[in-house]
Design a protein that fits this description.
α4 packs across α6 (about 145-160). The chain contains six helices and six strands; from the N terminus they run αααβββαβαββα. Mean pLDDT is about 90; it is low at about 160-165. It has a six-stranded mixed β-sheet with strand order 1-2-3-4-6-5. With about 170 residues, the protein is an alpha+beta fold. Helix content is about 35%, strand content about 30%. The longest helix is centred in the C-terminal third of the chain and has 15 residues, at about 145-160. The chain has a single domain (about 1-160), classed as Gcn5-related N-acetyltransferase (GNAT) (Aminopeptidase, 3-Layer(aba) Sandwich).
Length: about 170
């Protein structure tokens, strides 16, 4: 899934997502991106017709805080997948003991900035990048079935031996 999404990203989209130009993922990046455990590293894949077209992640960086990141293949950008991933990730965060998210974004990544600002993320410039933080906050109008997301997230926690830290 990781390779399918990465391969369908244009060089510009790869630059926006990984903050550097990449023609392929390095071994260490691949290891880090596939080390999903459902607790410290949460990932959700968006599919269309059985093909992976988007990935969203929450990676815990401190107690109660997670880095958020998402990527949508170019052929499906602008169709609401980023919004759906963000809604899903914020829903999962809200039942997983994550109360704050952070992100590092290139100033030229207008789509990510628009999504993250819509949930109240404020940014500051640091070394030419935008560093943002925000409390976990659900969108007023959901674009996903939140009850189904919560059921799946909690079952994943239970299967992996992690317990959700519900607030």
């Amino acid at each position: 899934m990781l390779d399918a999404v990465f391969d369908a990203l244009s060089p510009a989209s790869r630059y926006h997502r990984y903050l550097t130009g990449l023609s392929q993922l390095t071994g260490s990046m691949r290891t880090a991106l596939t080390a999903v455990d459902g607790h410290s590293h949460i990932a959700w894949v968006g599919e269309i017709d059985g093909h992976p077209v988007a990935i969203g992640r929450l990676i815990r960086v401190a107690p109660g805080t997670a880095e958020i990141a998402f990527e949508v293949v170019d052929a499906h950008q602008g169709r609401g997948l980023g919004t759906a991933l963000l809604d899903t990730l914020m829903t999962v965060a809200s039942v997983s003991g994550i109360d704050r998210i952070q992100a590092t974004v290139l100033p030229s990544n207008d789509r990510s900035l628009r999504l993250l600002r819509a949930i109240g993320m404020a940014f500051r410039v640091e070394d030419g990048l935008l560093e943002g933080t925000a409390p976990v906050r659900l969108r007023e109008t959901s674009v996903v079935d939140r009850a189904a997301v919560v059921r799946l997230a909690l079952s994943t926690h239970a299967e992996s031996g992690c317990m959700a830290d519900s607030a």
